Model the fold of this input.
Amino acid sequence: MHRYPLAKGTVVIRGGAVLTPAGLVDADVVIVDGLVTAVESNVTAPEGATVLDAEGCITGPGFVDLHTHLREPGKEQAETIASGARAAALGGYTAVVAMPNTSPCLDSAFVVRAVLDLGATTTTEVAVAGAITVGRAGEQLAPIAELAALGVQLFTDDGTGVQHGGVARRALDYCTGLGVTYAEHCEDLAIASGGVVHEGAWSAKLGLPGQPASAEEAMVARDLLLAGELGARIHLLHLSTVGSVELVRAAKAKGIAVTAEAAPHHFTLTDAEIASYDARFKVNPPLRPDEHVAAIIEGLCDGTIDAIATDHAPHTPETKDLPFDEAPPGMLGLETAFSLAYERLVEAAGMRVERLFDLLSTNPARIAELDAAGARPYGHTAHGARVAPGIPANLVVVDPSARWTVAGTALASLATNTPYEGRSMHGSVRHTILRGEPVVISGEAQR
Done:
């Protein structure tokens, strides 16, 4: 079994605040041979140590993305595992979970091993989500036990929800017996009826086929009922509606073992953006009106939604240049997620920084079992822990006061389909440390 190497040598992160188990404290962080060895003030760096300036910054656990489309194998012209991992590192991520809708999809041990091997030498640790059904066709269950034996912890047919309730129930039951998590892309295709935007005022005005919020909410309701009945653990992907948030809130109150994620575009953009017919704003689930955006923000703030996941979905320019209803859904997300979340949730909504790190790091690591207690594949190191002596040095240093402007051509992804082109951002990633190695220094990738 391949083992991720730990960096050798000493790194000192000097200045700023550190997110520790006791909260934010002003301190330096010392890393030796891939582990945090000290969190204390006024450290004298030993000769030969790498010293990273963190003045005015916050050092915390590296971010973990539950929902990254790396495209490889099959669509390497849009993204490769290496380019996606580099984008992730620049965005402050020390681990990502690769979605299975590749070609071939991640429904066999052979393909899963190949992706894990390709990810083993990149600048971000790469875990994978396995497909629930063979070919993501929603009919025959994939070899879930075989993939679980490789350390796969999340299973989803992302891009298409499991349409048949009986198949979904059988998969939930099977995942429960194996101790892995069923993760659902909630979209009832019969209700969605080919809609490419939210069904509402803008779809009517623009003459684009609309998808009602009930298409998402119907499957959320179905799967929560099934999970409650079976005592299963379930994770709901990229929620986007008022009703979905209310259903999850009620399910948690009943003790159902549900976690949920939301993507930055669903709490920073509304369906008014589609007025331009610009396909960079086409995403699935679609952008929603203000009341849905407000519900997602409330869910993130009150604990109903557990994690922020990017749903990073690169596409080539020629596909995104197609007419809106023909272009594929999806947008870039890894390099803008922290800035958007900090700006919208901390600065605008008053969220505590500690809670933001829970959403971007600690909770996603726990859900994917990439934390200290998890069954990590291929020797992955632990992620998500607040900074303390003894933890693997998977860390991020963020600068809340930094300002930068988004340019798709300047991002590390092979694709450029960001909906935030030209937007001025608040907050940025200064350094990213993976297994004790600084892979991003002062906003620049080191390899």
Summary: The domain at 62-379 is CATH 3.20.20.140 (TIM Barrel). Residues 258 and 311 are 19 Å apart (CA to CA). The chain has two domains: 10-58+388-445, 62-379.
